[in-house]
Specification:
This protein is mainly α. The protein has helices at 4-15, 20-24, 30-37, 45-54, 63-80, 87-95, 97-101, 106-120, 122-134, 141-155, 159-171, 175-187, 191-208, 211-227, 231-244, 253-266, 270-279, 287-303, 307-320, 328-341, 350-367, 369-385, 389-398. The longest helix is centred in the N-terminal third of the chain and has 18 residues, at 63-80.
Length: 402
């Protein structure tokens, strides 16, 4: 890692339109300042403070505060790798933002800002990313890995994020990065790669003692086996994941039941599907998850010719629409698709065909590959009844549906 203070000096000097000769007079030679700014010389703390003072910047040298800040940064980064609350660290950083901005922990502070902005202010997050890209050469391998991981989070769970995760892993191959890479691959339907990286994550987590990754990578492996309709193996991985949650607050049981139910639903084992859907008690506070849960249940009841129960689930979904503040049109189409299924001979219903096509074409970018696969199965059923076998085969091959 190069000397970062030189970059910070140069950045502030240019921002204030000062010459090298102007700020170094009486402190050091212009040639020495040039070397400091290029990261080729490490000045004493006395010279550094004087140079910053010339720029009207109070460079933080409070060793007690910096020592405490380092502990909070260590806590912050460790909380990220177990997806725990960062509020304790956040309170400290926000209280000492001026000191951290002009200190040896400037990079760590801006990585913290980048991470917090990702969810709170995407525009600010993009600005932080652009700034950090300019100073990435000043980061050690661990900090670079965090930077690339945060870039992946900013992009979202899609193919474009994978290259950033691979950069992070190349620099610092932790169990959490392998797990997160597996999560992205699961989300986009690369299940074989997901299995490979989830297994690596589990092995590494066994060595570095990350309980969150042990639980979550086991869960991912179970979910991949659900995709392959290998429910027996899925149950084994889910049981391991559920067992590991004892004494740990991560909840996986209801999601395991939901995934098993969906897997059985896809192979038309409606009895087992209903059994596992009924074991689901609560998913989470995100309305979206409960909306999709009711959607699958309504679909199942329709397949079981129980329109009364299906209608009740559709009614529950309608009550949720106002709470889904994003992508309302898509959720409304999901409802319309189910309502079309309520009609007799729905496979001959043009509304059912149109809503199904819309969902198959648009659902992946917003709700993920898994739901696209769900609508792919319905599309294949419809195309076969219309004797459009080549189109049905194309979807089967594209979505890897046997």
């Amino acid at each position: 890692m190069e000397n970062f203070n030189g970059f910070l000096l140069r950045q502030e000097r240019i921002k204030k339109n000062y010459s090298q000769e102007g700020i170094c007079r009486g402190i050091c030679t212009p040639s020495y300042l040039c070397k400091i700014e290029q990261g080729k010389a490490t000045p004493s703390q006395d010279i550094l403070v004087k140079l910053f003072n010339k720029l009207d910047i109070q460079y933080c040298t409070d060793q007690e505060l910096l020592f405490e800040a380092k502990k909070y940064f260590e806590m912050f980064f460790s909380m990220i790798e177990v997806e725990e609350d960062i509020n304790e660290s956040r309170c400290f950083f926000d209280s000492h933002h001026k000191e951290l901005e002009t200190s040896e922990l400037h990079i760590e502070y801006h990585l913290y800002l980048f991470y917090t902005y990702i969810n709170e202010s995407p525009i600010q997050a993009q600005k932080e990313k652009s700034y950090l890209e300019k100073i990435v050469s000043y980061m050690n391998e661990n900090l670079k890995a965090y930077f690339y991981y945060f870039c992946a989070i900013l992009i979202g769970k899609n193919r474009a994020a994978i290259s950033y995760l691979k950069k992070a892993i190349q620099l610092f191959p932790t169990s959490y990065y392998y797990y997160y890479l597996g999560t992205i691959q699961f989300h986009i339907g690369d299940y074989e790669e997901c299995v490979v990286n989830s297994e690596k994550a589990y092995r590494l987590a066994s060595e570095d003692g990350n309980p969150y990754v042990l639980i979550s990578s086991s869960f991912l492996l179970g979910s991949c086996h659900c995709f392959y309709h290998n429910q027996h193996s899925a149950k084994l991985f889910y049981e391991r994941s559920i067992g590991l949650t004892r004494g740990y607050k991560t909840k996986v049981k209801d999601y395991a039941y939901y995934n098993l139910a969906t897997s059985y639903l896809e192979v038309e084992n409606y009895k087992e599907a209903l059994y596992y859907f009924n074991k689901v008690e609560y998913l989470d506070e995100d309305v979206f998850h409960m909306f999709i849960y009711y959607q699958k249940l309504a679909y199942l009841y329709l397949k079981m010719n129980n329109k009364v129960k299906a209608e009740k689930k559709i009614y529950e979904m309608k009550k949720m629409i106002d709470k889904l503040d994003k992508n309302v049109d898509l959720y409304q189409t999901i409802l319309e698709n189910l309502e079309a299924m309520m009609e007799e001979n729905y496979l001959n219903n043009i509304k059912y065909e149109n809503t199904l096509k819309y969902l198959y074409d648009n659902v992946e970018d917003i709700l993920g590959y898994g739901l696209k696969r769900f609508y792919a199965i319905q599309s294949i059923e419809l195309l076969k009844t219309q004797r459009r076998y080549k189109e049905a085969l194309k979807i089967s091959e594209t979505m890897k549906i046997s």
